[in-house]
Amino acid sequence: MSTSTYDPKDVAVIVGGTYLTGFSEDMVEIEKSENNFETKVGAQGDVARTKVNNPLGTIKVTLLPSSPHVAYLDNLANTGRLVPVSVIYSGTPKETTTATEAYVNKPATRTYGNEVADREYEIQCLDLDMK
Description:
8% helix; mainly beta; 10 strands; 46% strand
């Protein structure tokens, strides 16, 4: 039996050349917009499989409101600038997610109350590549 240890410090998120810091508990989530393949079954049970070539995906980043990168991501959202994005996990197994063109959908929701509220950013990736 082998045991491995996950360390959140093995995760790096780079947006437009800037390494993000100040993550909340739910640091980052990556999801493709569609399945890689779809299947269709005919009336007589014949099966056809189609490769879906949709390269879109979303990277959701969750920061503490005190993160020095909240203003940076808000600015990217307001300008709509396209930037490269990388999420690298250097633990075991090593995983890399990249997009050469991505944009922040909108500024994070701002919540003020008696507890600190996270700032969530959805980054729309136009050419998501998960390895």
